[in-house]
Design brief:
Blueprint (H helix, E strand, L loop, with lengths): L3 H20 L24 E32 L2 E37 L5 E11 L2 E11 L9 E3 L4 E10 L1 H5 L4 H9 L2
Length: 194
């Protein structure tokens, strides 16, 4: 069997064996391995996780202030038993002030974030942002935080109330947002107390 075809086949088979043995790797990769029965929860860097932001906050402040002040100064000049001159100065002031501030905020957002780091204790540091354009108004939501893997549901969802060190920023830019801000001259008058 020393024909040119047999030699070519033997050479090709040898080359294939050498290529397979030098570049052969296992199908098992420890870093990306997931058992067939495992859930689809985020667990490594680069995995995507859905965060449902349900934040309600309210604050009420009430202040009532009242001050009263009265100062009187009088002087009398006498000569003998008769009064020569008399003067009096009086000053009084009343101040009643009060104020009430009330604010309530509610944010409902569903946002997908990416696992940026797996911490030593197994917690996941996640981060992500979402941009929306609604009626020429740009809305930007940014979220950073830390989540425990057992707080992630089977559907790969976590509530924002379960995030530690959470930073949720919701910013709007556009005509409506600009109209809600006071003009520079009004801020100056407020600063001057007018």
């Amino acid at each position: 069997m020393n024909t040119p075809i047999a030699r070519a086949l033997l050479l090709a088979a040898t080359g294939l064996l050498v290529a397979l043995s030098s570049g052969a790797g296992s199908l098992y990769n420890e870093q990306s391995y997931r058992a067939l029965t495992a859930d689809n929860k985020a667990f490594r860097v680069g995995d995507v996780l859905t965060v449902q932001v349900f934040e309600n906050s309210s604050a009420t402040t009430s202040i009532d202030t009242g001050t009263r002040r009265k100062n009187t100064l009088s002087a009398e000049l006498s000569h003998g038993s008769r009064r020569v001159a008399e003067t009096a100065i009086g000053a009084s002031g009343d101040f009643d002030g009060g104020g009430r501030t009330q604010r309530a905020n509610r944010v409902l957002i569903t946002l997908s974030v990416t696992v940026k780091e797996v911490l030593a204790n197994g917690d996941l540091r996640v981060s992500g942002e979402q941009m929306l354009l609604i009626n020429q108004e740009q809305q930007k939501v940014t979220l950073d935080g830390r989540v425990r893997p057992h707080d992630i549901s089977d559907g790969n969802i976590v509530l924002s109330t379960r995030l530690a060190d959470a930073r949720i920023t919701y910013l709007g830019e556009g005509e409506v947002s600009q109209r809600q801000q006071r003009a520079w001259w009004r801020k100056l008058l407020d600063w001057a107390g007018m």
